[in-house]
Design goal:
By secondary structure, the protein is an alpha+beta fold. The protein contains 12 helices and 10 strands.
Length: 411
Amino acid sequence: MSSIALEIPDEIRGLCDGLEKFIKAEVISRHETNHDLLSNGRKTYDENGRYVEEVIELIREVRMASSKAGYFNMCVPEELGGSGLGMLAYYVAWEHAYRTAGPHNWLAMYAISHWALGPSRLLERVTPEARSEILDGMVEGRTSMCFGMSEPGAGSDAAAMTTRAKQDGNGWRISGRKIWTTNSPIADYCVVFAQTDPEAAALRKGGISAFLVPTNSPGFEIESIIRMHGSVGGNEAQLVFEDVRVEPYQLVGELNQGFKTAVFGVSMGRIYNSARALGLARWSVDLALDYSTQRQAFGKPISEYQGVTFPLAESAMELHASHLMGLNVAQLLDRGEPAIKELSMTKAYAVEVGARAIDRAIQVHGAMGFTNEVGLFEAYNVVRVVNVADGTNEILRRTIVHRLLGGDRDL
């Protein structure tokens, strides 16, 4: 029985059914076979905090297996070698993937091409020469990329970036720093944002461009791995660019109009994080409901105590609303509407109620909720992070109010 009246196309439902089988066969099985390697940080990461080669190879295997099975590129445009499914498929598939895999089987995040890590509509904006150089490898899952926009002094206020690309003959030389660049320690390419017209950038009238840079370029350096939540390693990094030479063919989109590329990417990120938060929250509530029927206290299952189950009912209501918001905004985007207000609402709401649902699931489990083997703390950490990623909840509220005051009052 479904609680959603929207008729999700059979093609998308079929892909999700197949994706679930793929995750069980290719992702969960790898976690079971390589349990210690993938769950023990001392073995997952090397002394510098980077993934060890065995982990990098497993990630590549999942990408390539998914590409071969037809799931990795399901939402990549047809002209780039994908199936051309839109945002609705992107949202539904990611939510299903995270609800199926949970936080422990984290290789699932490589089963679908993430907009900032692999092929997506973002690559429609690269030049034909750059596309011919990188496309085959990314579509096959052999190579990957990262998205270099945030800087130590320019997070939510991305227009304040100081990385510059100075004209050098018919090309440019990039110098500056980036931070929170996901996947950069293992990526083959980086989409780097830099000032190309400082005066226009200072006035916030363009002046920022995007460039596709191979990570083995002279002057490209991973300065340090960013460790979070007490982990011994991570896949986020601080990057340094010292006179990195880029040629005209490496320009992404129009010169001085890089924010168009950035905004497009961040919009896909907000859809992704809404789906990720919902999927992990639904996984957590499922876990808590099952546990509440098994755990006994004072002679009966704790599911019979309203103090235990009413918070789960509250989360069920919130997650249902979040799901409807996500389905709605994905369809608006597929119709070509910007849906700026609606996307901001969807992402802010999803990550907030998602974190709250996981916290309630932890509470139902009592002390067990904090243990490594249950995985709820890991789910909470992930969703807590996305309350900041791709637009903080405060920035999203600012956008919503700006749109409302500007006359966009449809609710």
